[in-house]
Amino acid sequence: MKVLLTGGSGFIAAHCIDQLLERGHSVIFTVRSDEKGRKILSNHSGVPLDKLNYVIVADIAKSTAFAEAVKSNPPFDAVVHTASPFHLGINDPKDLLDPAINGTVGLLRAVKKSAPSVRRVVITSSFASMMNSAQHPMKYDETSWNPITSQEATLNAANAYRASKTFAEKAAWDFIRNGNPGFDIATINPPLVLGPVVSHLNSLDTINTSNQRLRDMIQGRCKDGLPPSFGVYLWADVRDVALAHVRAAEVSEAGGKRFLIAANTYVSNAHIAGIIRDQFPDLKNQLPMELDSDIPDDVYGYDNSRSTEVLNLEYRDLEECVVDTVKSLLAVGS
After folding, report:
1. What does the DSSP 8-state code read for residue 299?
2. Cα 302 from Cα 143, distance rounded (Å)
3. Strands 301-302 and 139-140, bridge-based pairing
4. Residue 99: its pLDDT value, please?
5. I want to staple 321 with a disulfide (CB 3.0 to 4.6 A). Which of 130, 237, 238, 242 is the partner?
């Protein structure tokens, strides 16, 4: 396939590029600047430009942001849309809501108008669009939706993020129902995404939000006690999340489906710290003495079977994920 990948400098997208190339596809990725595009190409210096190249999309919140990016010769077969902001240091909830919603709907409109060859758009959503933190169900699966309202979205940054993912995903499904495009969609809904950072794209100050907890642990910022695990006890390795995106583009049966991408174990900060202590003895003194898991006894259940049955995922275990992540963080200066 020829694939348009949005948000090419993102944490998940960087691994999507690797997976797409490994599986023989050609990729055009979007970035906000030539500098970022050149950095990514330099990390794949052996790949010819007809297999990997980039286009500039400076502001995904603009309704016409992707109008030119979707045009290609030869044309695209699929689109993988990972571009969306995820950071909690915002002043205005609209800083998260507008790019997520407008970027997603704008992309779908552009594909419908100018890329008739596309048959599948895979969208990075989130467990945030499934999670009801006020009243967890007995079990989460692909029928679960976050009931957050527009008013609740303005209360704080965490709500704004959850709302951005929920409203953007709902807008995408509404577009498919009402817009009669010539393509279908699949959404990928991961919880905490952990895993190795890509060194050419990251500094310790700009790594993805989920991995920041590992950075803080190995830098000794949690010596006096681990922070709470924040109520999200599901996780997935970024390499599995990336493969889920690629297989959702490849597998015809994935069309029209949401996918809860979650490993087969729960995770707490104590579990992560315990693996670091056991596998990296030199870092032991950076961690607190007491490592008590804060996963409640009545933690919610979840069903990830659609991802294993339709996408044929085999999830990595937490130890492999943590070890590889710590090694990558040490390589960029932790």
Report:
1. P
2. 11
3. parallel
4. 74
5. 237
Tell me how far apart the 2 most distant CA atoms of the chain are, in Å.
59
Q: In whole numbers, what is the pLDDT of the chain averaged over residues? A: 92
Rg (CA), the chain: 19
C-alpha dihedral (324, 206, 95, 240), degrees to nearest 10: -10
Nearest to 231 by CA among 158, 169, 288, 154: 158
pLDDT digits over 236-255, tens only? 999 999 999 999 999 999 99
What 8-state DSSP symbol labels residue 183? -
Which residue is associated with the tokens 């959503």? 125
Question: Which of 29, 190, 187, 186 lies closest to 120, judged by CA?
Answer: 186
163: which residues sit within 8 A by CB, 6+ positions away?
93, 96, 97, 146, 148, 150, 152, 153
Grouping H, G, I as helix, E, B as strand and the rest as coil, residue 106 is helix
| 207, two tokens | 């790594």
pLDDT of residue 62: 85
Q: Quick one: pLDDT at residue 231?
A: 80
pTM over 0.85: yes
Domains in the chain, start-ordered, CATH in brackets?
2-197+233-264+304-315 (3.40.50.720)
How many helices (H) and strands (E) in the chain? 10, 11
The confidence score (pLDDT) of residue 209 equals 81
Torsion angle, alpha carbons of 28, 29, 32, 33, to 10: -60
Structure tokens at 167: 């409203």
